[in-house]
Each structure stands twice: as C-alpha cells, then as structure tokens.
Amino acid sequence: SDRNYPTVLEMLNIKDTVIANTLMDQRRIESILLLPDRNVVRDVIERTNDNNTNEAFTTNGDQFYGKPSFKMYACQLKAPKIFIKDSERAIQAKQAEIEKLTQSIQSLRTDMTGLTQQIDANKQLKTQNDRQLDHMRREHLQLTNKLKEVESINIPEPVDIKVFEDEIEQLENEINDLKEQIEKVEKNSREKKVEYETARKKWRLMKSRVIELVSK
C-alpha cells in the first residue's frame, strides 16, 4: 500500500500554517512519497491506483513520477546538504569538503609559485637579451660607419671591403636571431601571466568557500 511510506508533509515539522499551505498549494507535498530506495518504486508509484500519490523521492535523492509520464531523475548530489538528520555526518561532510579545498588551495599555491619563478626568470632573460641586442646594434653601427668611411676614401692599396660586408651580414643575422629569441621569451611571459591570473582566481574562490564553510 502507498500509505506504508510517509509523505514529505508528514516528515516536516511545519508550525506556520501559511508556509504549510503554500508548500501544499505550490508543490503538493502532501502527495509526494518518501521511499527507501528505487526497488520499491515500481510497486508503489507505477502500479498505484491513487492519483494523489504519483510522485516520490528516494533517500538518495532520486525523483520519480508515476502515471502518465513514468519519469525518473537521478540525483546529482553525492551527499545531502539540507535536512541532514545526523549532525555528525553533516560535520564530517563539511570537514571533508574543507580538507579537499585546502589541498586544492595548496596545490594552486605551488603552481602560482612556480609560475612566478618562471615569469621572473623570463624577465631576467629578456634583460640579458636586450643588453646583448644593444651591444650588437652598436657594433653593427660601428661596422657600417667604418665601411662607409673606407668606401669614401681613395686608398692606394686595395682594401678588402667584402670583409666588412660579411661581418655586417653576420651581425645582422645574429641580431635577427636574438630578436626572435626575445619575442619567444615575451610570448612565454604573457602566457605564464595568464596562467597565473587564472590560478589566482581559482585560489580566491576556493579560499572564500573555505571561509564560508568554517563560518557556518
């Protein structure tokens, strides 16, 4: 029989009649059964002739509808969050969640520290590359000026201008290579900064959640 199992209304201790009537009008809690598990659903819901008891919840939160739809919705929650009878279980669940969040926060801190170190290393590398690039540019300018000077002067003895040209070309290639290295370092730094900001946002959210759990 359907009445072997309580309804939601029977399990709630509602002292305010306005609240009780609202829940009955809006949700019909007097006709929603609470069943121990899904094994009894077919006997109670699907085979019932009582049109007033065509909906039920099991203890793990699964929701069932009887005639005419015969639908079932599995509960996605791993543990109840409200109406927990056993306060010790509720405390243990909260402590477990806090511990899990704390571990995640520690992991994010480690990631953020590693990212910070990589960003600092990239800054140092970029500074070194910038200095080297400035030095090579000055050297390039000196060679270019020297080549122009040689070309503009009539020297009786032959001067191998190609030596200067080869040195300038080699220096230009080195400058271009160094520019590419600097661009790679800058790109890597930008990516690490984005990763750092993402990790920091997650860290803040988890920290807020821990504070929220502790304060309850």
TrEMBL record:
Gene Ontology cellular-component terms for this entry are: nucleus; site of double-strand break; Smc5-Smc6 complex
Q: Which domain of life is it from?
A: Eukaryota
UniProt keyword annotations, A-Z: ATP-binding, Chromosome, Coiled coil, DNA damage, DNA recombination, DNA repair, Nucleotide-binding, Nucleus
Coiled coil, from the record:
84-202
Single GO BP term: double-strand break repair via homologous recombination
Q: Where in the cell is it found?
A: Chromosome; Nucleus
Gene Ontology terms, MF aspect: ATP binding; damaged DNA binding; single-stranded DNA binding
Q: Please identify the protein, giving its name as recorded.
A: SMC6B
Organism of derivation: Brachionus calyciflorus
